[in-house]
Amino acid sequence: HSGHEMPPKKKGKKGGKKKKDPAVLEMEEKVARGIKENMSLREGIAQRKDLTRKALAAGVEAASTKDGAVRELEEMQEEAADVNAYMSKQYKMMQAQMGLQVNQLERDLHRANEDLAERTAELADLRRELERTVREKDEKISSLELKMQNLHSQYQNMLHSSLDSLIEKLKSEWLGFEEKETGLHQQYKSALLEFGLNTHDI
Predict the structure, then answer these.
(1) Do the beta carbons of residue 153 and residue 163 sit within 8 Å?
(2) Burial class (CB in 10 A: 0-12, 13-18, 19+), 192
């Protein structure tokens, strides 16, 4: 269908509308069919484009989700590796520190044992020295006591001997004095008698 109006009928002529040329009709039909097919094709293309777009979008989303999951997994693996490395480093550091502390404690214990052995030996020496000092003191005390007893005995003996000697001396001197006194008394009486005096008169 061309869309143009048909020319007006001529007066005085019989018959209806003038038929189109078959070639023209066929051309018009081909054009109309072509337009319809073109529209259908365009709709199909548009639908396929839409489907393709949706599929691509879904694929991109899926790929994005997959990539995100892969990245997240890789990040988790990296974090796990970092954590493992950190923990391994911390464990090694702690192990080394504990090793140093154990070595230090062992050295301290060894030194303490040596000090204890030295102190034990010194204590044993002090105990022996104390026992020797006490023994010497006891021996000196016993010796002094014995000397004091001997001195006391000697002093007693000397004292008794001196007293006895002194008493004997005093006795001897007293006897001599009595003898002298008797002699003087007789001389005195004789002298008085010579002068005619009596001792009872004095």
Answers:
(1) no
(2) middle
- Which residue shows structure tokens 């979008």? 57
51, 20 Cβ separation under 8 angstroms: no
d(CA 26, CA 20): 10
* Residue 4 clears pLDDT 50, i.e. is over it: no
- Cβ pair 51, 43 in contact under 8 A: no
**What's the mean pLDDT in 27-40?**
78
State yes or no: pLDDT of 3 exceeds 50.
Answer: no
Start-to-end CA distance of the chain, whole Å, equals: 225
Query: Please, are residues 122 and 116 in contact by the beta-carbon 8 Å criterion?
Result: no
pTM for this entry: 0.34
